[in-house]
Structures are given as structure tokens and as C-alpha cells.
């Protein structure tokens, strides 16, 4: 870095004084908070509507991840073509309408399982498009050298939302069934208003003529196929995320159905685990500066397997919460690292499409995992299901360690903290 470059970087304001980033961060934090409240209530709602069916919990979870397999690709092209501000605004407005419908039909007592699944899918679809647009917009409102810090703060934002949103959602759900969805709709409203005050130009940087959808997607696919490390890491992360569905659904089934504990207990467990996720997000940059990406990923999957095995023998909500908190610490650390790697190696004009393709690959596994987890928990209950998932996670970590491109994966030097 030259003296001129160093002077320019030093003159740039820190993220805490970047007005556009703060508006974007705050508005989307409220949306994440609302999404966390609603998402933790959807399985409980499905359990209530279905009369206690674990398969209904699996269907609700599948409805939340299935749109990622359907919406990701067109969303990526949309984000690369259109004004990201308009995309995020209309997604926020759409979420207000969907969440309002959930709350209204629930209050009137006319919410059935079919309608619930459709509304879950609609909200998640809008959230996917809005999140992709925001991820690309961050590159516009934040200087390149501050991108790792910005993505770390975004990860921390999601973890804080999980820490507060999960317990808040279950408490509100216990108090009045429709209230979490009203609160989530208000968060989306604030996000829509914040977007009006962002000064940065969030339109597409590319001036190339628009082509057929499949041609735009093929450009991103060709680029992704040429990235050995990224191409190899995606299936690994996909399988790990699919196996994580057993833990997520298992908490609901084990605590509420098998142990007969109050629904608010789930909020306690999620609150404890959220603390771990927040710690992981806040320390992610520290680990990135000291350990290569391969160690963070392979080591993280190995530790996940050990913790999932321990969760199978946990005797109460406190132990489950602590073990899940440790999983969240690990997941947040390698989540930040892999996000920084993908964003920094991807050309600006392909950001939306590459993120969409990556998200689609992960979503396909997650969707399959959500379906399988429901059936697994229904057939074998919580303990054996967690042991099966832990064993498969060991295999996943071992396969990742055997892939040369994964072992050699490194975050670009320019994006490493402290570089």
C-alpha cells in the first residue's frame, strides 16, 4: 500500500460514523429481529395447529427453506439488474403485508396449516431477495478495506437478533399468539423508511445490456466452476447445514413434545445459544487474523459433531442451551470467514448471482435436511436422531479434510483483518 493510499484510508470515517451503513444496518437489524421472532414461532404454531405432529414441524421448517431453492437464482439476477434500494423497499413492504396476514388470520381463528405454509414461504422469499440486495449494497456504502469489519458486524447483527428475537418471540407468542408477527411487521416498516434516507447510489454498476435470464446465470456458473476452493467448500457447507436442521427441529420436539416443558423454555434455550452466536460474531475477525480458512471450516465441523453428540445426552434445557451456544460460536466464526472469502473473491458485477448460486446449493441441502429431520425425529425421537446427525457430521468433516483445495483455502490478503 502506497503512502497516498494509506492517507486516503486513514481519512475515511470508521463504520460507526458511516451514515449510509448505519441506516442500512439498523433497518435490516430490525428486520432480522422480526424474522427471528416470527421464525421461532412458526414451528410452535404448526405444532399447535396440527395437534402436536412432529411432521408438521418439519413441514413448517421445510416451507421456510424451500424458497431458497426456488427464489435464489431469479433473485440473484434481479439484484444484479435493478436498483437495490427499490428491491429492498418492496421486499420490506411485502413482508409487512404477509406478517399482517399471519397475525390477522391467527387472531380471527381462521389460520389453517396450508395457509400457514404458504405465508411462511412468501415471507422467506421476500427476505431472501432483500438480503441479497443488502449484501451487494454493503459493497457500495462501505470502502473495500472496511468490508470484513462490515460483514462481521452484519453477522453480529444476526446473532444479536437471534439472542433477543428468539426469547422475545416465544414470550410474545405465549402471551398473545399474533403479537410476534405484528412486532415483526413494525420492524420491516422501519427498514423501508430508513432506505429513503440512504444517499449512496445503489443502482447496478454494470452498464451491459440485459440478456436472457439463463445467460446471466451461466456467466456466474462459469465463474463459480473456475473457483476450486469455493466450488469444493459449497457442498461441505451444504451437508453441514442440512444436518443442523436435526438440531434446530430437535430442540422443539425434545423440549416441548418429549419433555413436556412450556413453550417459553425454547426461548430460554435460544437465548443462551444466542449469546454464543454473538460471541462468535464479535471474535470472528480475531480468529480470521490467526487461523487459515481451512482450519476454521474443518475444525469447526469436527467440533460441531462432538457437540451434537453431547446434546443427545443433555438432561435439561440449560445444558442444551450451553451446548447449542458453543455450536453457535463456532458457526459464527467460520460463517464470517466464508462470507468474507466469497464476497472478496467475487467480481462486483457477479455479486448477486454468485451469492444466489451459493445460496441455492446450500438451500437444496437444507430443504432436504428439513424434510428428513422431521421424519427422523418422528420415527426415532430426539436422542437417536442427534446421534445419527453427529455421526454424519464426522464424515462431512473428514471428507472436507481430504479435499486439497479446501485444505489450501485462504482469505485474500487484502481482506484479512490487520492486513
UniProtKB/TrEMBL annotation:
Gene Ontology cellular-component terms listed: plasma membrane
UniProt cross-references to InterPro entries, sorted A to Z: MFS, MFS_dom, MFS_trans_sf
Domain Major facilitator superfamily (MFS) profile: 20-408
Transmembrane segments: 96-122, 178-198, 232-256, 268-288, 295-314, 320-342, 354-377, 383-403
Topology in the lipid bilayer: Multi-pass membrane protein
Keywords of the record: Cell membrane, Membrane, Transmembrane, Transmembrane helix
Keyword Transmembrane included in the entry's annotation: yes
Xref: SUPFAM superfamilies: MFS general substrate transporter
Membrane recorded as keyword: yes
Subcellular location: Cell membrane
Gene Ontology molecular functions: transmembrane transporter activity
Listed name of the protein: MFS transporter
Higher taxonomy: Bacteria, Bacillati, Actinomycetota, Actinomycetes, Kitasatosporales
